Amino acid sequence: MEFSAPLQRLDSKVWYYFVPVPDEVAEQFIEGDDRRVICTVEGKLSFHCGLMPGGSTNYFVLLNDQRRKKLGIVLGQVVHLSLEKDRSEYGMPMSDELREVLNQEDQAREYFHALTPGKQRTLIYWTDNVKSSEIKIRRALVMTNHLVEERGGIDFKRMNEQLKAANQRAKKGG
Predict the structure, then answer these.
(1) What secondary structure letter does DSSP report for 9?
(2) Kindly report the CA angle at 152 between 148 and 119, in degrees rounded to 5?
């Protein structure tokens, strides 16, 4: 499904840019609470995202600053979008490194799958948002150990401290 709409800006301190999605387009992708899609902007850049409700339109797609700048899109510019239903297991890709660590850690895997889909995606992003396979594995190990220690809970501040400690150990060669 393809359409065009102007890039707009939210009055928010968290999210800034968005492209409104016409109701008749959005409704074709919504299945109960599942609003996950794969969005392709200007035929050049694809990413997994959710159709966000609210604002001045009923639904919209967020376009972060990094993607906006990469595409050279400015506020008010009419943007061409293509949407397809996201049928991936988690609503975004998971690295082989994270999948393998979860496969080896039964308790962590159980805790991970007990989390809400949004928390699962947050942890996937936290773990996989680096290029280095070595760092992905280190982050996956920290995250799975954290889930077990917290009995399925997530304390992001503590988990980030644990990652810093793991990074320091890696620098020292141990």
Answers:
(1) E
(2) 125
Cα separation, 91 vs 103, whole angstroms: 19
- Is 91 contained in some domain? no
Q: Which neighbouring-strand residues pair with 47?
A: 39
Residues 139 and 67 both lie in one domain: no
Q: Are the CB atoms for 27 and 5 separated by under 8 Å?
A: no
Note whether residue 60 is domain-resident: yes
Phi, psi of 24 (to 5 degrees): -65, -25
Residue 8 contacts residue 62 (beta carbons within 8 Å): no
Torsion of CA 136, 169, 123, 152, to 10 degrees: 130
What pLDDT does residue 56 have?
Answer: 55
pLDDT of residue 55: 56
Mean pLDDT, 10 residues at a time, over the chain (174 residues)? 92 83 92 93 94 78 91 95 94 94 95 95 93 94 96 94 91 76
| Main-chain dihedrals φ then ψ at residue 79, nearest 5 degrees | -115, 140
Q: Which amino acid is at 131?
A: K
